[in-house]
Structure prediction request, 466 residues.
Amino acid sequence: MECSVHSIPLNKYVKYFDGQWQGMIAASDGACYFGASTHSPRHGCSFFKFEPANNKLSVLAEDMTQVCGEDRTKTPPQGKIHSPIVEFEGWLYFTTHLSNYWDEAMDKYTGAHVMGYELSTGKFRDFGIVRKRYTIYSAINVDRVHRKLYVLAVPFARADVEKDGSHLYQIDIESGEMVHLGLVGQKQRGCSFWFFIDNEGNCWFTLWKNHWPLSWDHGDLYQFDAKAKAIKCYKDVLPGGKLAPDGISAPAKLNTERSWSWAEALPGNRQCLFTTGCLGGGDERLWIFDPRKNIETGEAFQPFAYIGSTFLANAFDQKDRLYFVQYKKLEDARVYWAEAARDYPREDIEFDDALHLRSISVDPAGDKTVTDHGRIVDGQNRRVTMIESLAADSKGNVYMHGTWDSLTAEESTHQYVWPELTEYYDEMGYSPLLKTYTDAKNYDFKVMHRGQFFSHVNVVKNTGRK
Prediction:
């Protein structure tokens, strides 16, 4: 079976787009809003709107650096929207993010902005920089009770990382006032991809530890208590990893990495869904977290179903279904990381790297069987190699931002190359991709065989089958 999508090449708009992580929402007006991100020092991220009724794609902001009132020729650009996009009372809220990951750029970065976008008028609101030179990596969410936004300011510049850590902030939506809520954990860089804010205004989150291990955090859960106005930490409470489909324990070495790699509130905001996956401790179940139950005993964490490993590419349709993207074989996600494997030469791909769209009902009374909507294909025989942004609505529309093999130079990414980029992949054991960069020059651009594409499918109407 095939999941046949309508795909739009985004590098025709800006040649520097090289990925998109989070930063996508199916909004209440029936359109999908999303970012397109880059590591280029020459350009910032863009912001788009897609209307499924007529397949219309509109550029709402060609460069968020300019929307933030900054000059990319003088300071590093606002290169990514690497945060969730959340909706509240007709507004979308998201954050910008540093994406020039080398010392000179990180030292000169102005700091991440918190942004609003009004659906009815198309106007942006810039709440400003939260903490000078710090980025937001990457969670944002809204307290619907007290009308507050929460973000996590994270140090990236070497000097900031050595002397400080990550800080939680609260922003009043009406006044724009920013309140510093405190250091999270200890003085060391920690990031969080997702916040769950419950119906009492408590903000719950974990710290991601796959890229930057934290010696003092092994499966910890954090809460900003809205009544006590203080950050609490529940030590070592996240469940240990088990593998699909039969519950074999995940490798012990992943135990210290336990964290949410995806989380989203269920209707009513009393509970949230979450996953951890191979980059968050190795667990391959979908979970429900209920903070009204005992956290220390584990009662608050209830496994829902085995679904296999996922990372950022998950989407709840705000009704009763969760969508996600996976390799055909579940065990391949434990070995291969799509962001690296997308640059493997074809001859070095020794597994079935076809990506499938899958889903599961989250209705407790429903069928907990995973539905495979098929291998993701488009009408022009491109090959998709990475999808890290996903959104869905209750009408069966599923939206994806991902990397596909390009058919022409016009579709191709102009990837900016700096020394740490390939060094990191080499250290992680993804050496086959280094062949792709053999002729690349540091601090220069390389035209890749891949490009960034926005894709859409309605799984109710999709009939692509073999």
In short: Residues 345 and 433 are 7 Å apart (CA to CA). The first strand starts at residue 2 and ends at 9.
